[in-house]
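Can't paste images in this forum, so I'm doing it all in text. The chain is below; anyone willing to post the predicted structure tokens underneath?
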Amino acid sequence: MKYLKYLILFLPFLLTACLGEENSELFGIGRSVTVKDTSGNGLPAGVTFVGDHIYLELTPDAQRVSIDFIADSPVTINKEKNPSWAKYDIDRNTLILNVDELEGYAPAGERYDELSVKVAAKGYKTHTISIFIKQAIATYEQLLEKENKAIEYYLSKQTVKDWPGEDNIICGDNAPFYKLADSGVYMRVISKGNHRFNDNDRVYFREEYYNLFIFMSTGYLGSPAGNMTDVSAQPAFFLAGGQTHPYGVGIELPLEYGIGGDSEVYLVIPSPKGMMKTLVTPFLYHVKYHTTF
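Text version of the structure:
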């Protein structure tokens, strides 16, 4: 049995293992398996081919891996172990692995999972290929570092200034993003509003938000999520000056800088100050604050 091993390469990588004569029954002479990392993160990963086994060793940032089978019949995933993170594209004869959804055993610092597929070339018997995945798990500090890079990249495309004082801010669609002290939050003011909130006032708001990881990888914000345009959904609210922060301190921070009712802002909020603290993802929020709903 010939062993085809590929050392660590940089992503997106393209590895083709042309099977030798001893494996000719699987795909036929000259046929191959191609593995690609489609996460677009540009980080290293390793792939090793041993017989009918494929071993994937992935970095924490790897999110999607595709395996192209050059064969004459569709690939079928073993029904006894058909994980939700594995999808088969019959038109491209490609197995897509959403490895960021892995549910397998996770010892300290790593997580594992596996699956098997059946494939055959015309004129040859069906073979089972086993795919073993090992992915390093990023530490919280590494995730925060990645998040900060996404925030810095987005802000590098904007005008950023220190807070000039409430009476000197510039408003509008082309206004700068103001750094709000050492909070890590940045704010662009579209409209300051016309009503100052007092402590314990209900502050109603509607929001939509954009994932800045998407912006870092594509250069576009993409489609937002949230309830900004969903008139059937009631706006959320928090209490001005409250001791609890049900939606994170970032969404409340503009009130400390003179933003009132019937106002509109954009906020860059890192995860420690955001609505979803357990999800280390930076968001650009578009928020409108109201005194009533």
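Helices lie at 24-27, 140-156, 212-218, 249-252. The first strand starts at residue 3 and ends at 10.
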